[in-house]
Design a protein that fits this description.
Length: 99
């Protein structure tokens, strides 16, 4: 579904999920885990992330510029460095809140 250039996903949640698993965009799976998806284990699992970070704005800030919130993090500032567009950051947040 994510790789279908002729029929890309239309909803924000699915688009955000595609960014999360994309090796050329978010590449979240290099560090984080989601059940059933080949993934890393050096960062917290993404399952139930909304229980750890219930505030949507805080979750967005974590993805957009994690070092601003925690200078010791190894998570890159996806939004600030232009790895993801602001729209992609928003869609990743929408996806993560469904886990």
């Amino acid at each position: 579904m994510c790789d279908d250039k002729d029929n890309p996903p239309k909803d924000a949640v699915t688009q955000g999920g595609c960014v999360v698993i994309s090796r050329t965009k978010g590449n979240c799976m290099a560090c984080h885990r989601i059940a059933g998806v080949p993934s890393g284990d050096i960062a917290p699992p993404l399952a139930e992330v909304s229980k750890r970070i219930p505030d949507k704005a805080r979750l967005r800030a974590q993805i957009d510029d994690a070092p601003k919130l925690n200078p010791n993090t190894v998570m890159p500032p996806f939004g600030r460095h232009g790895i993801l567009t602001q729209d992609e950051v928003d869609k990743v947040v929408e996806f993560l809140l469904t886990l």
